[in-house]
Amino acid sequence: VKALMDQLNTLHAFGFNHCIVTRYADGQDCIGAHSDKTKDFAQDSWFCVLKLGATRPFSFIDLKGNTVFHKSLAAGTAIFVRTGEGSANARLKHCVPGVDGPCGASGSLVFRNIKTVVPWSEVLPAVDKRAARP
């Protein structure tokens, strides 16, 4: 993942320094329409969704609820979204809708440029506390 992030940063000065991995077990596993919360994003940065696994639909929806883009995307497809005031992330929501019928596992790597740094001395106790929950 780090080598891929470094390559994306070589192609363009995205400044990616963070990655979220998402796995969808099947077609019923999905994520609803949302805009990424930008509180921790570097100002006027990008995020990149790199599709993995089975071909799945991906949609952009305007703030009035109208679908402006809906297409099934194969593994290896990359979607680049600008963040910040007036950006695509501010004006649109995106989703991976559920699929009726057979669909294999899929997912994505989402690369972002995050300005917030949380020291390991704070992260590890939070992880331990969460792991201890029943």
Provide a short characterization of the protein structure.
This protein is of the alpha+beta class and 134 residues long.
Brief descriptors of the model:
4-stranded antiparallel β-sheet; alpha+beta; 134 residues
Present the secondary structure layout.
Layout: H1 2-11, E1 18-24, E2 31-34, E3 46-53, E4 56-62, E5 67-73, E6 78-82, H2 88-91, E7 92-96, E8 106-112, H3 120-131
Antiparallel strand pairs: 1-8, 2-7, 3-6, 3-8, 4-5, 4-7
How would you describe this structure to a colleague?
With 134 residues, the protein is α+β, with helices and mostly antiparallel strands. The chain has 3 helices and 8 strands. It has helices at residues 2-11, 88-91, 120-131, and strands at residues 18-24, 31-34, 46-53, 56-62, 67-73, 78-82, 92-96, 106-112. The protein is globular. The two termini are 31 Å apart. The mean pLDDT is 93.
* Number of helices in the DSSP assignment: 3
- Subunit organisation of the chains: single chain
Q: Shape from CA axes?
A: globular
Low-confidence stretches: none
Distance between the termini: 31 Å
Round the mean pLDDT to the nearest integer and report it: 93
Order of neighbouring strands in the sheet with most strands:
1-8-3-6
Kindly estimate the percentage of residues that lie in beta strands according to DSSP: 35-45%
Count of individual beta strands: 8
Structural class: alpha+beta
The residue fraction in helices comes out at 10-25%
Report Rg: 16 Å
User: What can be said about the biggest beta sheet?
Assistant: 4 strands, antiparallel
